[in-house]
Design goal:
Elements lengths: L9 H14 L4 E5 L3 H10 L2 H4 L2 E3 L5 H13 L4 E5 L16 E4 L10 H12 L4 H18 L11 E4 L3 H4 L1 H8 L15
Parallel strand pairs: 1-3, 1-4, 2-3, 4-5
Helix pairs in contact: 1-2, 6-8
Amino acid sequence: MTQSPKSAGFSEELCKLMPTLLKKHKHGQLVLFTSKSQMNACYMALSKDLRSLVLMQGDGSRTQLLKEHTRRIEEGERSILFGLQSFGEGIDLPGKLCEHVVIDKLPFTPPNSPVEEALAEWLSQQGRDPFSEISVPRAAMKLAQWSGRGVRTITDHAIITVCDIRLVTMRYGQQMLSGLPPFPVIRPKLEAT
């Protein structure tokens, strides 16, 4: 990826890159999105062949989707789960069920309660930065949880692809990386198809 999620062209670039990311893996994959509209856009941008492999959150219950995903993998087929935040937390996909996790962008969330908003306002009044003290640690924790979907046991091997260049270009991204297990970090040059 060359564009930040804040750029107007990010969604289009992600949609063009997604088929390349998904074609390289033979078993289970999990693609996590921070918005439903981005998930739908990426799904619609896939070829018919790739779309047939996707089980998308909202097309059935989470239990049904995970059961079908497991069935496909156990029968030697490929399967790709497209999901939102709830798929990044609390699901267990060991071994071949998840050999690749794709994360569309860093999972920042705005303060979502009056208490959090008041804390952010108080920090600002104290000359402190609510973004670095509240938003970055929360996003780092979610990123660790989401990355953990691919490594559930000591024998698991998975590739974690984060499509957000801020992870390597921004100072807070480096802080987030340092909070993850010591994964090798590779920054490939991928061409969109």
